[in-house]
Amino acid sequence: MTERDDYFEISLLFKTFLKGVAQEWNKQGFRLSQTQFKALYVLSKEGPMMVSQLAAALDLTPAAVTGITDQLLADAYIQKERAEGDRRAVKITLTAEGKSIIKEVKDKQKEVMHSYFSILPEEDMDHLRRIFAVLIKEIDKN
């Protein structure tokens, strides 16, 4: 197998794994889409953000984030507040319900991921962590 084939095969295997994880997400019956969860998770880690900041963090357009946050607002997972200096700007903050759903989803996802990765020896897990750290570092350079 050529080096180029290796890259392609690894890419396909990784995409297949992520597709399986996404399908399992859908089977769990979460009240959130993965993108909605990512938005809440970013807010939990970074604190209150403007729509444009959240859009950049999620690599989405501000219009897409507005749609996502409208649903999260309707479900009472977030609050939107006008910024004091610029009434057009909207700051998004998590509510107690938002924090609660993050914990619920993270706990369930931890169980699901454990079921996948528990079949690997600790040495393989160490290799995966190291490999992904190197790859992510390279991606972050660009």
UniProtKB/TrEMBL annotation:
SUPFAM superfamilies noted in UniProt: Winged helix' DNA-binding domain
Keywords of this entry: DNA-binding, Transcription, Transcription regulation
SMART domains hit by this protein: HTH_MARR (SM00347)
Keyword Glycosyltransferase in annotation: no
Pfam (any one): MarR
Domain HTH marR-type: 1-137
InterPro entries: HTH_MarR-typ, WH-like_DNA-bd_sf, WH_DNA-bd_sf
PANTHER family given in the database record: TRANSCRIPTIONAL REGULATOR, MARR, TRANSCRIPTIONAL REPRESSOR OF EMRAB OPERON
Protein name: HTH-type transcriptional regulator YusO
Species this chain originates from: Paenibacillus auburnensis
